[in-house]
Known about the structure:
18 helices, 0% strand, mainly alpha, binds phenylalanine, 76% helix
Amino acid sequence: MAKKATFSSKIGLVAATVGSAVGLGNIWRFPAETQTNGGAAFLFLYILCLIILGVPVMLAEFSLGRGTQSDAVSAFSKLKPHSPWWITGGLAVLASYLILCFYMVVAGWTFEYLWQSITGDLYAVNLAKDGMDASFHAKMEEYICSDLSPLINIYVLIAVNIVVLLCGVQKGIERLSNIAMPILFILLLVFCGVSLSLPNSFEGVKFFLTPDFSKITPSVVVNALGQAFFSLSLGMGILVTYSSYFPKDTKLTKTAFTVSLLDLLVAVLMGFIIFPAISSFGLGNAELRGSTLVFVTLPEIFAQMQGTQLWSVLFFLLLFVAALTSTISIAEVSIAWIQDRFKKSRMVATLIVMLPLFLFSSLCSLSFGSLNSFKIWGMTIFDFLDTVSTNIFLPTVSILTCIFMGWVVKNDFFKKELTNNGMLKGNGYNLTIAIVKYLAPPLILLILVSFFLKL
Length: 455
Ligand code: PHE
């Protein structure tokens, strides 16, 4: 059998894991959540969720993957053979694939906007200040809801994914992450500098950093939990898969903290970019939810800045890089599973996973256009996949993983992974195991229950 793939360096494995974690969740979901949920109060809550829940659950996934050196499904069956626990891994693979189908569509949009920034077409709209918002809105709607043009971008993106994934763990995923992540952080810092130096930017900083605790309701707490989960890529099998490529001497706790911190840093930097910019351009009341922030509000801002095209190209490059490294990581879950389970070569496994996407992602994309009236449970295909995978599958997989690592597998296994077989000193592992056993399952259950109650 082929030798188990590993990441070649510590920086590489952190870059790849951060690459997965940093995505549209940080860039367009976080600022919107912060805007509506009390500024720094939400940030504070989010940090709490990351530390109390995110890091321990991440460690459970890391230990499972590194300890078994297996894909997301076999990790469970290796530790508990002849039991139905493998189904948890199966759910993770299914969830990751469903997410891949619709995330590819959104990643395709970022590529279109990058391209239109390069050609300048994005700014061929009504640039009179009072008409701009409507024009960018119309442009976005027209593009997203059209049938053909989004498909072309999706196909380009699938092709890029295939090329990287065919190159393998070290030469594909790790190499891409080593290049992409520094670029992403440099771009974020540049934007932060630019945004903070805009006139009147201070108002925005003040909004971001002033906590309004009156906005914190139980449903906001659940939102913060959900955001932490999505942003750290938990419950998707990604961390189990990636950590199966970690060398035995990787310090899991340190890695989990580093990844969470960098992921948080991106979210916070986005706050320092968005809020000063919107206050400086008098867009303080702009709707930041979802695609509006990046495809309407930001182009409006760039259009009013000197060097419109340059800023626009750089920003959509940033967004594209963030989306690309996320799609790669999520595709790897199914590829690793097919490679391990069916003993297929990387090439065959990659093609089995990626080729059907040409069809599935197309259907998701068309659900904004011709297939818009086709509904499942009253939702379009895109919304259905998004809702089911992020609100139901992700928390379910996470709860089951915590129960598995906390209660089903002997705690010794978890402890051995956290301490690198007793080589690392300290007692932090006791706390981690206790959280995974007692605190994480009921808290995550809250996300699940609140979704069903809202429904
Ligand atoms: N952590 C990612 C984000 O914030 C979530 C994700 C990862 C989504 C991989 C898709 C694929 O966007």
